[in-house]
Amino acid sequence: MNGTGRGNGKTLLLxxxxxxxxxxxxxxxxxxxxxxxxxxxxxxxxxxxEHTGAELLSALEAAAGALGxxxxxxxxxxxxxLGSGLGGSAAIGVAVARALLAASGEAESPERVLRSAGxxxxxxxxxxxxxxxxxxxxxxxxxxxxxxxIEPLFVAVPLRLVVCLAGPPASTKQMxxxxxxxxxxxxxxxxxxxxxxxxxxxxxxLCIEAGDMSGLGQLMNYNQMLLSGLFLSTPEIERxxxxxxxxxxxxxxxxxxxxxxxxxxxCEDPAPVEAALKSDGFAAFSTxxxxxxxxxxxx
Length: 299
Known about the structure:
By secondary structure, the protein is of the alpha+beta class. The protein has two domains: 2-152, Ribosomal Protein S5, domain 2 (2-Layer Sandwich); 159-289, GHMP kinase, C-terminal domain (Alpha-Beta Plaits). It is built from nine helices and ten strands. The protein has helices at 54-67, 88-103, 110-125, 131-138, 172-185, 187-210, 213-229, 235-246, 270-279, and strands at 2-14, 25-40, 45-48, 72-78, 141-145, 149-152, 159-165, 251-254, 262-266, 283-289. Helix 1 (54-67) runs antiparallel to helix 3. The longest helix has 24 residues, at 187-210. The protein is globular, with a radius of gyration of 19 Å.
């Protein structure tokens, strides 16, 4: 029996790293993602694009173990850039979990898929917050905490984003550990930064629900300042943010673990921002988070 599953890529609009410590984050699924096809087999086997290896196989075994299903052969096609802060690993984990359940003839539920995707993520990231998997599963725009889980957000107007890749990506696990070490040396700095990010996220929620894109952009810029203060930014990320803002972006910041990878820019008109980033040598593309159909319902 065969089964197919899909997971979305994601952007973290605000709240990365703070979410690891129990603070809220706002994430949004994007159209790029991963599709997995699973077939029952005598032994586990996994190919992600052209990639295979022991770590991927361990992740598949962990994901299947969390579901209580046996060996499968899984093939994954990925459209989201991997290792860039766009949730590629979580997108694959969600796609694999859904495919395994479908191939096993078992019912899908958010709890089962997210538990399996969490087991997958732990192989690569050590202590994932869960927000990537939540966005990969839910799509739309979500408000997420480790304790409260997924809460769909009402999106008053479409969120038009330009995503660019600002230098080689860093390991999520290493960046999370670097913030932890900073907190051990400077607990006051980390505590103030986390509190500041929490306040920004809560205000960003109000902006999204009210359709205040200018206010949301300013909050994204402030979030970038705090992330930079935690030594998560790079010269390439700062340059990409500056180029985007100069071209008319309402706000720009790193998204994901930092240390490289992706930058997102909130735009009224994405075209000139995308063109400016490409002209400056960055790979960039536009995406849009759809508005919700009615108040109180996430898209």
